[in-house]
Amino acid sequence: MSAPTYTRSPRSASAGVEVRLPWWAIALPAVAFAALLLMMVGSGQAHAATDDPAIGQLLQRIVDLLAR
Q: Rounded to two decimals, what is the model's pTM?
């Protein structure tokens, strides 16, 4: 008994594959890429905050509480 062989139909071999994407499938990755690129480019202008001692006080209190 021989096994059946499957061949492609002539319609599928000659027909091109058509893929339709919704508009947001292209727009969202493009917007995300642009936002990340802007964040990387703009990060060179960032400066450390030296006027806010609240963070230092908070960290000091956490260290004091853990040391007990």
A: 0.39
